[in-house]
Amino acid sequence: MKHSTKTILFVVILVTLFLCPVQEETFAARRRKSSKRSLQSYLQQYSVVQKKLTDKLDQMIVTPEYESIQDDLKQWKKSYQLASHQIAKIPVKAQPAIESSLPEAEIRAQNELRRVLRKHAIEIYKISQRLIKAGHPSYAYFLVREVIRYDSDNKSARRLLGYVRKGDSWVTPYAAQMYRNNYVWHKQFGWLKKSRVAQYEKGQRYYRGRWMSVAKETAARQDFRHAWQIRTDHYLVKTNHSLEKGVEIATKLEEFYQHFFQVFIGFFNSPEQMAKLFDKGSRSRSGRLKNLYEVHYYRTRDEYNRKLIHKISRINITDGLYFTTDRTAYFYHDPKQDKTHTLYHEATHQLLYESIKQERRVAYTRDFWLLEGIACYMESFQKKDGEISLGNPEYNRFREAGYRFLVNRYYIPLEKLSAIPSEDYKSHPEIRKNYSQSAGLVKFFMEYKDGLYRDALIQHLSNIYKGEGAGRIRYPTLAELIGVKYQILDRQYGEFILKEEADLIKGMVEVDPDE
Ligand SMILES: [Zn+2]
């Protein structure tokens, strides 16, 4: 299908964009040119180091000495090639020892391959450190993850990303602490005392110092004050639905979190945000809970409405909410519909807003469309058969954007849209149409011409999230950042949406008018 080749592959594309001098010009922001030039030189160093590795692997492949590890060599070469269009996964396992039962020649060959990869990892690590010193944390972050890909046990890189060794695995500090306290992670029940696992699996539950049935515990936790609390590395999920549901939600959010930081690496560029990027935020022992992202998940829509109506009068039209004032995301269980996309929508609002501790007004006077657009875009995050995809053109919001634009001819030009203040956007009579247009626009800025405008968009988002208010210098418009006029961007969007969505909206009947 079309979208499988469309899996979005941010990280390395960002890097290659900076290596391309033609596109560099379009990224306006000329005053930052000198720093960009230095970034470019570091990334050149990176590509030289990468080339050295491919040459070395090629050479090993044709050397008889390495005959016995041909498959491994080819695998590494393939994985290097794949790296330019895949989101890198961090391996959990430490490197296993080379099997001593293997023929001596093979052991020697394996050792040599490991030595080559280790050396390669160290070289990348050195570049990442130079990048940090030069003030490019986001690219440093990308490279530190690369280090681990080549040498799962590189201690410096692991330490930077907040991992600690536990037996044959690398785990987060929180997981290490839980293991030390004799807890284990259970797919259904989350962190659980090892000694209680068997009874939980038999349907028993431990609550308030004694064992009871599932039904009894469920009844006791109906009142949200006694809700289950599911703690993971970065989240605290409270729910009165069920322990299992809470664990499912927390697991999805953690997964989303891991990829979120790769997509938005360019967003985290202040020292505070950088600390977050390198996962220092969740490490401090004091006030640990404060650093967690809090999520409340209600058992029914009715209860969600009742509990939140004092915060927002039109609660019944919402599917989920994120409140900046109490820094909590709210959801409810819908037995008829999978609402995972809403989870990612609100999680996006939460992760972006909470990148800075300070309370502030964000996009109050302008650019509010982007806050909703980016959240709608991230709704399309999907994990299917182990593959992660983002921006699938078949996703509802994008098809709707196509339908509105191509069939209804509904479109607010960018310049006008950008000038709409948050309150007007939220109470706009065509709010639903504007949401889908915003989603379509973000898709355009993220993906047009292999991500030509992506860095500028993320820079813009980063400026917006620093907040409006006293002392804040007026930040540039998106058109200024890109260096292309709004009217031209409008036209390019039209071409983009036609190419992306025209086939997908064929035969589509009128989209639900503003529900
Ligand atoms: Zn939203």
Architecture overview:
With 515 residues, the chain is α+β, with helices and mostly antiparallel strands. Helix content is 51%, strand content 10%. The protein contains 22 helices and 13 strands. It has helices at 10-19, 21-26, 33-61, 70-82, 104-133, 137-150, 155-160, 173-180, 197-201, 214-220, 243-263, 271-277, 301-308, 340-353, 368-378, 396-406, 414-418, 422-426, 431-451, 454-465, 478-482, 486-501, and strands at residues 164-166, 169-171, 183-186, 190-193, 204-207, 210-213, 228-231, 235-239, 293-298, 321-323, 328-332, 382-384, 387-389. A 5-stranded mixed sheet has the order 7-8-9-11-10. Strands 1-2 form a two-stranded antiparallel sheet. Strands 3-4 form a two-stranded antiparallel sheet. Helix 3 (33-61) packs antiparallel against helix 5, helix 14 (340-353) crosses helix 15 and helix 16 (396-406) crosses helix 22. The chain is globular and about 75 Å long. Mean pLDDT is 85; it is low at 1-32, 82-86 and 281-289. It binds zinc ion (ZN). Zinc ion binds next to helix 14 and helix 15.
